[in-house]
């Protein structure tokens, strides 16, 4: 017969199988945003596509993902995060097969849009499942693993994509970038019902269809011009769309408040933003990804177009950043235990220092110096990212009611994708404006380090925003599960 002490020890050692399963599903969804970058030249050549058409391969996925995340998160609250994770992953796997066997560029574009929408269904469920399944110290470790997964999906995208294309398995060339998702997706689909519990928090609640329509149109009015406007020279439609987004968002917010006042079920509960930690955390997340998204893209352009590197060696250079990220991810908990939320400020500060160092070195190297000199700056930036990756979303979600976990995760993920899109657009104005319409090779270093001067401002703003996060209450640390939530997940990242 099992003793109470043995049972207590078993309860303190939760199964990590649900975490592993949902993190792998989330990894391939986020990875697909980055991995396809390196396949664009091969896609253009193989399918005889124009530059604007191949641009839509990236824009279609990113726009669909960003626009659908809030709705996907709310559907997780209503129908259960496991169910929506399975549906999203099944659609993602089918869409990946369609991408891999696409006979034409427009077939591929449509398949990528479906891929993005399916990712919007499954991605918010990852954090929601983590929030429901794990508590206390285990939740801190689970958030740390989530941050590691998210960071590596961005850092390893170019490397994995470049390696797959270089290997050219069965002569499939760029198609392997999408087909690799099929076996992974099928395995995770089989394992999910066996390992992930079926959680229901808002069963019977109706989906706010009017809110879905307003949120989708409002986000599309912002995201599409941000992703496509620069490529088309900022035409009139892009500016009109951005202007129209203001009254559209105002209408959406008014609609949500009216539903909440009637005790109905809005798409996003306005009460989420009454929690200071959530509001500040989402804002900081948005600003942080403005720097991350723009740096990744512009550094890749500098290396490949400015220095003539192939995708694989360029991706290998990112392993320096990955090493720093991986190493600091294991230290973030111990540092957070000592300084609390200031671990985020420390990490963001190191990101700014790392980016700035890379910019200064590129200014000295030009296009023919030894590129390896940028490695120390990449290492420092990666180390800083590891200190931000888990603690920031943990701090944002620490006080969120579990019944709104999927919705809150959807808002957080939307902030991430929207921040990356806005960052690329704003910094792109500096970078491509400096290059001009007929870029000379020696113009790339100047365009890059001038862009870095803008990029480093964003992590500095994050360090200031962190000061507005609520301070964890150490007195609540010894209580129940509810007390753990009050202390905040950042404070729980110990050992």
How is this structure best summarized?
The chain is mainly α.
Description of the structure:
The protein is mainly α. It has 22 helices and no strands. The protein has helices spanning 4-12, 17-35, 40-47, 51-79, 81-100, 105-133, 136-155, 157-167, 176-179, 181-195, 209-228, 236-261, 276-306, 311-329, 332-339, 342-365, 375-389, 391-397, 405-435, 443-455, 457-466, 481-487. Helix 7 (136-155) packs antiparallel against helix 14 (311-329). The protein is globular and about 60 Å long. The protein starts with a helix and ends in an 8-residue tail after the last helix. The relative contact order is 0.13. The model is unreliable at 1-11 and 474-495 (pLDDT under 50).
What percentage of the residues does DSSP assign to strands (E)?
under 5%
Please state the CA-atom Rg, rounded to the nearest Å.
Answer: 22 Å
Classify the secondary structure makeup into a structural class. Answer: mainly alpha
SSE topology string? HHHHHHHHHHHHHHHHHHHHHH
| Averaged pLDDT | 83
Give the N-terminus to C-terminus distance in angstroms. Answer: 32 Å
Number of helices: 22
Number of strands: 0
Low-confidence blocks of residues? 1-11, 474-495
Helical content class: over 70%
């Amino acid at each position: 017969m099992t003793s109470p002490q043995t049972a207590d020890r078993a309860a303190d050692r939760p199964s990590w199988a649900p975490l592993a399963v949902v993190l792998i599903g989330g990894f391939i969804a986020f990875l697909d945003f980055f991995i396809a970058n390196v396949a664009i030249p091969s896609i253009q050549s193989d399918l005889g596509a124009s530059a604007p058409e191949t641009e839509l391969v990236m824009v279609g996925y990113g726009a669909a993902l960003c626009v659908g995340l809030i709705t996907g998160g709310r559907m997780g609250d209503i129908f259960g995060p496991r169910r929506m994770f399975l549906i999203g992953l099944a659609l993602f796997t089918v869409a990946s097969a369609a991408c891999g066997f696409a006979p034409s560029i427009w077939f591929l574009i449509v398949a990528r849009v479906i891929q993005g929408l399916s990712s919007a269904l499954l991605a918010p469920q990852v954090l929601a499942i983590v929030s429901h399944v794990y508590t206390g110290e285990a939740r801190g470790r689970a958030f740390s693993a989530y941050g590691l997964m998210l960071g590596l999906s961005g850092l390893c995208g170019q490397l994995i994509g470049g390696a797959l294309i270089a290997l050219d398995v069965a002569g499939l060339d760029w198609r392997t970038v999408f087909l690799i998702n099929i076996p992974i997706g099928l395995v995770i689909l089989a394992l999910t019902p066996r390992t992930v519990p079926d959680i229901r928090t808002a069963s019977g609640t109706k989906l706010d269809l009017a809110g879905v329509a307003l949120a989708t149109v409002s986000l599309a009015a912002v995201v599409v011009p941000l992703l496509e406007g620069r490529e088309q020279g900022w035409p009139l439609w892009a500016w009109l769309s951005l202007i129209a987004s203001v009254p559209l968002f105002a209408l959406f917010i008014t609609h949500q408040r009216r539903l909440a006042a009637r005790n109905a079920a809005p798409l996003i509960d306005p009460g989420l933003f009454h929690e200071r930690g959530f509001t500040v955390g989402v804002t900081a997340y948005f600003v942080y990804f403005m720097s991350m998204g723009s740096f990744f893209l512009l550094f890749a352009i500098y290396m490949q177009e400015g220095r003539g590197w192939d995708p694989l060696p360029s991706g290998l250079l990112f392993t320096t950043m990955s090493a720093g990220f991986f190493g600091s991810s294991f230290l973030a908990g111990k540092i957070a235990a000592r300084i609390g939320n200031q671990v985020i400020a420390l990490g963001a500060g190191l990101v700014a220092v790392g980016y700035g160092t890379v910019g200064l070195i590129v200014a000295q190297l030009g296009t023919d110096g030894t590129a390896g000199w940028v490695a120390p700056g990449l290492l420092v930036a990666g180390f800083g990212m590891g200190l931000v990756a888990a603690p920031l979303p943990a701090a944002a979600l620490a006080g969120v009611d579990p019944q709104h976990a999927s919705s809150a995760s959807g808002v957080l993920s939307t902030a991430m994708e929207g921040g990356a899109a806005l960052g690329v657009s704003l910094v792109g104005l500096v970078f491509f404006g400096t290059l001009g319409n007929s870029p000379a090779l020696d113009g790339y270093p100047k365009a890059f380090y001038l862009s870095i001067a803008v990029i480093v401002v964003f992590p500095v703003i994050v360090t200031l925003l962190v000061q507005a996060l609520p301070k964890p209450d150490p007195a609540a640390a010894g209580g129940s599960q509810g007390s753990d939530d009050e202390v905040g997940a950042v404070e729980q990242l110990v050992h």
